[in-house]
Design goal:
heterotrimer; A alpha/beta; B mainly alpha; C mainly alpha; A: alpha/beta; Rossmann fold; 2 domains; 11 helices; about 35% helix; disordered N terminus; C: mainly alpha; two-stranded antiparallel ribbon; 16 helices; 4 strands
């Protein structure tokens, strides 16, 4: 697992004036924020606000049309998508992207790919080094399995697993990269109340026991309030408010973004019901 | 002069490729299935035309109509029996399925006594006729192909643009689930799409017959239609025709100007160049997964 | 499913996971070793073909079944290996040196053919590999100085350390040895990070990238290994047939190879072997069955094509997991008797996942 947080003042991830244009649409516009080491930072906002787009920018699936992203001193602007994990960033996906026809254990072992010690020639001949590396990799995967209580599913094909378990497997796989920064895309979507509570505990454990910084996109406000250190609200590609969960959730602009203002709703109001006099 | 002559025959050949590619693209747009059986459907259509003309004495125009009808029904039959059950399976499996169907069709045709194993001539009314125009000697067969393709394209365009069925097909090809919700009978439409593709293939077969004669291996020309579809962009109907024309012209010109052997592989070199520089083809769609 | 109780990591990593595995595979190896003593010449030759096709089947299985890359022109790689081996051994180069050169050449061609895979997927890749297949076949036909063109090239029997292997049994042992080596190599790759990276690419390219897998590198590697292995099979094929020509490595053969992996079971190593057995025995079965069919059908030239087609269609429709899949179902039925449930191996029927958006 990654080092326990060095009390380093420099932010772990820093975004400056990020901008992404798709055709004529500005999906992300002048977005700037910092994520401090060891904190849980959440992005909230209505659908289409650009939150997952920011994630895809960090994962390098999208290229920003302007602005910079810096992670742990490395400028991300020229990095290929597959090098992001090497740098220490892991992510989960909104619509689960697991390796369906492999077992849970194999998924986790693939998660540890950046830490492999052997090249393809050694693999071909199954040298003792490969054997030892395999045993070590399995030990590391086992730690994550224990952390997330996945023991019963170790040898099950992912394709047969229920949704809630798959979400946990995605989380486990991301942890196997031993990241410094973990991007969680809507970790509670599709989970019921108990599962969401479990997820909240795990996210806190990830911060406290494993020392991993978490950047999260989330809609479930109770989960956000429970675990986040700081929250950034976005709407239509722009930042609205930044602060503690309570501050942001009571910010009038944020409320307006989610619910709309009173004027927006007036056309929906029905005419006064007819009330008979005296009744 | 020579160049013009080559162009005309290239365009004519390209029209055939374009028609077959049209069949692929229709099916691909509707169900995202790639059908390797188009070439053999073309061959089957030509054989049907041969049989009704030589054995039943039908005139040419009637042969076209009956072949189109027969192939249309056959297309429906294939869709219902073979394609529908495997919806949802990965593309590779579906491709293998269509290859299997193509083998069956070829094998069965070979088994037909006499005509199955020979090269047969189709007695079209304009056979071997030429027109002299402005110093060029143009084969009527080529001109008929070009004209017929143009007419067919115009008809298909009108169908897709102006009829309810055509619009429904477009809708279902863009988003099957939404089409279902709107009450569009998607599965029946898929059958219709296969029927249409098979009918188009039949026309291609009958148009090609005077040039290559009717024989069981005619369908291999269908393989050259894949480069046509790729060049045009797999999701685009006009692209299929344009792609076909390009391939036809390239083939014709390279047959004359380049050393032997290049003619056969010129289309494939074009495909590779296209996939490298413009993978989505000339008119293709650029889609990426949203994660 | 038989529950294998694992007590150590080594057991999970090992190829033979429990006593039963060791027993049956041991018996298989023993049977293969004494085959020349038991089988008549003709069947020994057929078994050699099965081994040759198993080798190329393993290569294609690795590429298509485990890495998910479509390759419709795979016979071309066999051809490269075959021609390289023929040319080099005819010019006096020792067998294994020629083999090594042939493998490297095939691998290089494999990387070139696989280059489109870096930019396009699915059917586009299929068409690209199809195109390469045609081009390579044409090169074989035109490069007459080296390949003898359409007239073909004759090949000497293999000579290893001064011994000429021109008997059926000596050649059989050569095939068996190479087949075992290739199989072990593939199995080793699959239980190591490299093989897992291949599977990751097959199942989800996007998350593979997020896990740090360099798509270009691994796809190229998959094509290279798959082509090199096909090259080995091609070299053996050349020595067996003693004569090669371009039309032996055309589209028809490529489709035969696809038939092999699909019928055998896409995604299973065993599938390569079962598919090879199927491919070699089917013509024999047709020949045997011909006598029972009425003359009109049995004597017809198209019968083989029809049966191939029907078999392919039947497998795709009714047994998408191939022969190995069927074997798994039968074995599970026996192991779990009487608790076998009909839907155990059923693939979830979902809406067609758009390949455009994969």
């Amino acid at each position: 697992m990654s080092d326990v947080t060095l009390k380093n003042d420099a932010p772990l991830l820093s975004a400056r004036d990020l901008q992404v244009r798709f055709g004529g649409v500005l999906a992300v516009n002048q977005v700037s924020f910092d994520v401090k080491r060891g904190e849980i930072f959440t992005l909230i906002g209505p659908n289409g606000a650009g939150k997952t787009t920011v994630f895809n920018l960090i994962s390098r699936f999208y290229v920003p049309t302007a602005g910079t992203l810096e992670f742990d001193g490395v400028l991300l602007n020229k990095v290929s998508p597959y090098r992001v994990a090497e740098l220490g960033i892991a992510r989960t996906f909104q619509n689960i992207e697991l390796f369906e026809y492999a077992t849970v254990l194999q998924n986790l072992l693939i998660g540890g790919h950046v830490h492999r010690k052997t090249g393809f020639l050694a693999d071909l001949f199954h040298t003792p080094k490969v054997r030892q590396a395999e045993v070590d990799a399995r030990e590391e995967a086992e730690k994550v399995i224990e952390f997330l209580d996945l023991q019963p599913y170790r040898d099950t094909l992912v394709a047969g697993l229920p949704y809630g378990i798959r979400k946990v497997v995605e989380l486990a796989r991301a942890l196997c990269t031993r990241p410094k920064l973990l991007l969680l895309d809507e970790p509670s979507s599709g989970l019921n109340v108990e599962e969401t509570d479990g997820m909240a505990f795990w996210i806190q454990d990830i911060k406290n026991e494993l020392g991993i910084t978490v950047l999260m996109v989330e809609h479930d406000m109770s989960l956000v309030s429970k675990v986040s250190d700081r929250v950034l609200a976005m709407n239509q590609g722009e930042t609205l408010a930044l602060g503690s969960p309570r501050e942001v959730q009571s910010d009038p602009r944020v409320i307006e973004a989610y619910l709309g203002s009173a004027e927006d709703m007036s056309f929906l109001r029905r005419p006064e019901p007819f009330v008979r006099k005296g009744s | 002069m020579q160049v013009l002559q080559l162009l005309v025959s290239g365009i004519a050949q390209g029209c055939i490729y374009g028609l077959i590619a049209l069949g692929f693209v229709l099916i691909y747009k509707a169900t995202e299935t790639v059908s390797f059986v188009q070439g053999d459907l073309m061959m089957l259509g030509a054989f049907i035309g041969l049989v009704v003309m030589t054995m039943l004495g039908f005139p040419f125009w009637l042969a076209i109509v009956s072949s189109m009808l027969a192939m249309g029904i056959f297309g429906l039959f294939i869709e219902r029996l073979v394609i529908r059950p495997i919806l949802g399976q990965p593309q590779f499996t579906v491709v293998m399925l269509t290859i299997g169907v193509a083998y069956i069709i070829r094998g069965l045709i070979t088994m037909i006594p006499v005509i199955g194993s020979e090269t047969n001539s189709l007695p079209v009314p304009y056979k071997d006729q030429v027109i002299a125009a402005g110093g060029l000697l143009l084969s009527l067969e080529h001109l008929v192909i070009i004209a017929a393709t143009a007419v067919l394209c115009a008809v298909l365009y009108a169908v897709f643009r102006f009829t309810t069925v055509g619009i429904a097909m477009q809708a279902s090809s863009q988003n099957q689930l939404a089409a279902y919700y709107m009450g569009i009978p998607v599965q029946k439409l898929n059958g219709l799409v296969w029927a249409l593709s098979a009918a188009v293939a039949a026309v291609a077969g009958l148009l090609l017959a005077p040039i290559t004669f009717v024989h069981v291996n005619m369908g291999f020309i269908g393989l050259k239609a894949f480069p046509a579809a790729v060049v045009g962009g797999f999701g685009s109907l006009p692209g299929a025709i344009v792609g076909g024309l390009i391939i036809g012209i390239v083939e014709s010109l390279s047959g004359f100007y380049l050393p032997t052997g290049f003619k056969d592989i010129a289309p494939y070199i074009v495909v590779l160049l296209m996939l490298w520089f413009k993978p989505n083809g000339l008119f293709g769609e650029k889609l990426r997964k949203k994660v | 499913m038989r529950f294998t109780f694992k007590t150590s990591y080594e057991q999970d990593i090992a190829l033979a996971k429990h006593g039963g595995h060791r027993l049956w595979y041991g018996l298989l190896i023993a049977a293969l070793l004494i085959a020349p003593l038991l089988l008549p010449e003709y069947w020994l030759a057929q078994l050699s073909f099965v081994l040759i096709y198993s080798i190329v089947g393993l290569g294609l299985m690795l590429l298509a079944g485990f890495t998910g890359q479509v390759s419709i022109g795979h016979a071309a790689f066999m051809g490269v290996g075959a021609y390289a081996q023929a040319y080099l051994t005819n010019h006096g180069i020792p067998f294994f040196v020629a083999l090594a050169i042939g493998m490297t050449l095939s691998a290089a061609v494999g990387v070139i053919v696989g280059a489109p895979a870096l930019r396009v997927k699915g059917i586009y890749l299929g068409i690209a590999t199809l195109s390469f297949g045609f081009i390579v076949e044409e090169v074989f036909a035109r490069w007459e100085d080296v390949t003898g063109g359409n007239a073909g090239l004759s090949v000497k029997p293999p000579e290893i350390f001064g011994l000429t292997l021109d008997t059926d049994s000596s050649f059989y042992y050569l095939c068996l040895g190479l087949c075992v080596i290739v199989t072990l190599g593939v199995l080793n790759l699959l239980r190591a990070p490299t093989g897992r990276a291949f599977v990751a690419i097959r199942d989800s390219e996007i998350s593979a990238q997020s896990m740090g897998i360099n798509l270009a590198r691994y796809k190229g590697l998959a094509f290279a290994i798959s082509a090199a292995v096909a090259g080995i099979a091609g070299a053996l094929y050349a020595h067996k047939m003693r004569f090669i020509s371009p039309d032996q490595f055309s589209l028809i053969q490529s489709i035969d190879l696809l038939l092999l992996v699909v019928v055998g079971g896409l995604g299973f190593v065993h599938g390569a072997f079962l598919g090879a057995i199927f491919l070699i025995t089917l013509p024999q079965l047709i020949a045997l069955g011909k006598d029972y069919l009425p003359d009109a059908i049995g004597g017809a030239a198209g019968l083989q094509a029809v049966i191939y087609g029907i078999v392919l269609v039947a497998f795709v429709l009714f047994e998408p997991l191939g022969l190995y899949g069927r074997w798994l179902k039968i074995r599970t039925w026996f192991q779990m008797f009487p608790f076998y449930r009909k839907g155990m191996f059923k693939r979830q029927k979902s809406f067609t996942k758009s390949d455009r958006l994969k």
